[in-house]
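Priority: medium. Attachment 1 of 2:
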């Protein structure tokens, strides 16, 4: 009987934690485990912006460089001395490929490069039972994080990894939304890692 009572108290405590801090618990689990929904190779990349913000267009996916949550760092996009479209971050430069065309910043992925864009979502959703919307009366009952991940590897060993996080809402009768919801301080571009690249 005592073991059952202890187990019940643990279950109640974890349920309370999930209701109270579900978002934080989900983000913690996301560090170790996410569900991948799609992964595909990319052939082209284009940049639209002023050098420090704007949008990276990867095939039909738009990845925003606005609202960056990188703790003070800001990636910049431009061209290298040998006319390659490149990303610079924290003193590291990652070249995407030779610029194609004269009026746009775009490049075709070199044949030997492995470039992928992945869509992932949290393994654990969190409840949103207590939020009220007085305008429409329609509020999401569940939320989860979705991730867009750009992974790029060159034959030289240079690697780039960029990760975007957004919130996705679940409405009864409508399912999960397609929209990428933002939340100040928690969403947008959250990680840029460049390794084995020229300084």
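Attachment 2 of 2:
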């Amino acid at each position: 009987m005592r073991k059952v009572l202890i187990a019940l108290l643990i279950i109640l405590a974890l349920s309370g934690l999930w209701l109270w801090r579900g978002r934080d618990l989900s983000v913690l689990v996301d560090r170790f485990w996410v569900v991948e929904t799609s992964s595909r190779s990319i052939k082209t990349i284009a940049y639209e912006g002023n050098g420090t913000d704007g949008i990276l267009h990867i095939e039909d996916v738009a990845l925003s460089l606005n609202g960056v949550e990188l703790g003070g760092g800001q990636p910049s996009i431009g061209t290298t001395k040998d006319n390659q479209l490149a990303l610079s971050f924290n003193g590291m430069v990652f070249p995407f490929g030779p610029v194609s065309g004269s009026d746009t910043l775009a490049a075709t992925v070199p044949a030997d490069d492995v470039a992928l864009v992945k869509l992932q979502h949290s393994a654990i959703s969190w409840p949103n039972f207590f939020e009220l919307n007085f305008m429409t009366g329609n509020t999401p009952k569940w939320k989860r994080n979705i991730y867009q991940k750009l992974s790029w590897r060159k034959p030289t060993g240079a690697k780039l990894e960029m990760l975007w996080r957004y919130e996705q809402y679940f409405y009864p009768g409508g399912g999960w939304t397609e929209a990428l919801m933002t939340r100040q301080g928690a969403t947008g571009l959250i990680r840029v890692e460049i390794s084995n690249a020229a300084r």
